[in-house]
């Protein structure tokens, strides 16, 4: 199992339970509201990704490429 750690700052809570993208990752989520998860927890979440969060899109694309690379290397 590969653990991926992302520190994502949301301007507001944008987590939906119905979305086509299912991303299972380890997250340290910092909200601008007073809720801060300081410990990394294993969660399966659904991100509502808007063009407003271009950096998140870019990060997830890199993560997907990394996972694919690791999967191909481990299969060899």
TrEMBL record:
| Taxonomic superkingdom | Eukaryota
The protein's name in its UniProt record: Uncharacterized protein
What organism is this sequence from?
Rhizophagus irregularis
Give the taxonomic lineage as stored in the record: Eukaryota, Fungi, Fungi incertae sedis, Mucoromycota, Glomeromycotina
């Amino acid at each position: 199992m590969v653990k991926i750690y992302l520190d994502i700052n949301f301007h507001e809570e944008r987590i939906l339970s119905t979305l086509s993208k299912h991303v299972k990752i380890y997250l340290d989520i910092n909200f601008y509201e007073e809720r801060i998860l300081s410990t990394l927890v294993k969660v399966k979440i659904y991100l509502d990704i808007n063009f407003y969060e271009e950096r998140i899109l870019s990060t997830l694309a890199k993560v997907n490429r990394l996972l694919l690379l690791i999967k191909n290397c481990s299969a060899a």
